[in-house]
Amino acid sequence: MKKLILLSSLSIILLNCNKKTEAPTAEKQPADTTATTEPVVDTLGAKSFCYMGITGKDTVYVTIDDNLGTITGKMATKNNEKDSNKGDLTGFKSGDTLKLTYEFASEGKTGNKNDIYFIQTEDGLNEGIGERDAETGTKYANEKKIKYEGGRNLKVADCNTVAKALK
Predict the structure, then answer these.
(1) Are 68 and 44 in contact (CB under 8 A)?
(2) Per-residue pLDDT of the chain (167 residues; tens, 9 = 90+)
(3) CA-to-CA distance for 147 and 140, rounded, in angstroms?
C-alpha cells in the first residue's frame, strides 16, 4: 500500500511539473471601424461660396469666403440701364446672418461704402432691406427692423461663372 501511495504521489508531481503555465491574455477589443471609414473633414479651413441673382436684366454676382465666421469676398452688380458697380465684401457671420460692408467703385468713383446684410440659406442668400441711417446713408438705422423678404435673392451658382463676371 505504501508503494501505491508513493507511486501515485510521484505521478501527480510529474504531471504537474510538465504543465505549461499560461499567461492570462487580454480579450481582443473589436476594431474601431468608425475611425477608419469616416473621411477627414476640414472644419477649420475657409469655406467658399458663389452666388448669382437675376432681376429683370440686372445681375448680381457674389463670392463669399467664410473663415471661422470672418467673411471676405467680392460682389459685382451689372445693371442694364444704369452704372454697374464692383467691389469687396468684408464682415462677419452672426448665426445665419452675414453682416457685411461693401466697398465698391461706381460711376468712376472709388471708396463708396454700404452695409449689406444677407441671410444665408442652403439655397442661397436673401438680402436684407431696411431703413438707412440719415446721417451716413450707408448703415442700417436699426438692425432689428431689417426685413429679408423683398430684397435680392441670390442662388448658389457655379464659381467659374461668377469668377469670370467678377474679373
Answers:
(1) yes
(2) 666 665 566 566 655 655 555 555 656 665 555 555 666 665 566 689 999 999 889 999 999 999 988 999 999 999 888 888 999 999 999 999 999 999 998 877 888 899 999 999 989 999 999 999 888 888 888 989 999 988 899 999 999 999 998 88
(3) 11
What is the DSSP-derived secondary structure letter of residue 145? G
> CA–CA separation, 154 vs 123, rounded Å?
8
From residue 139, give the alpha-carbon distance in Å to each of 18, 72, 150: 92, 18, 19
Cα separation of 150 and 107, whole Å?
26
Pairing state of beta strands 58-67 and 70-78?
Answer: antiparallel
Cell of 94: 452672426
Can you read off the three cell numbers belonging to residue 30?
Answer: 473589436
Q: What predicted TM-score, i.e. pTM, was given to this entire model?
A: 0.70
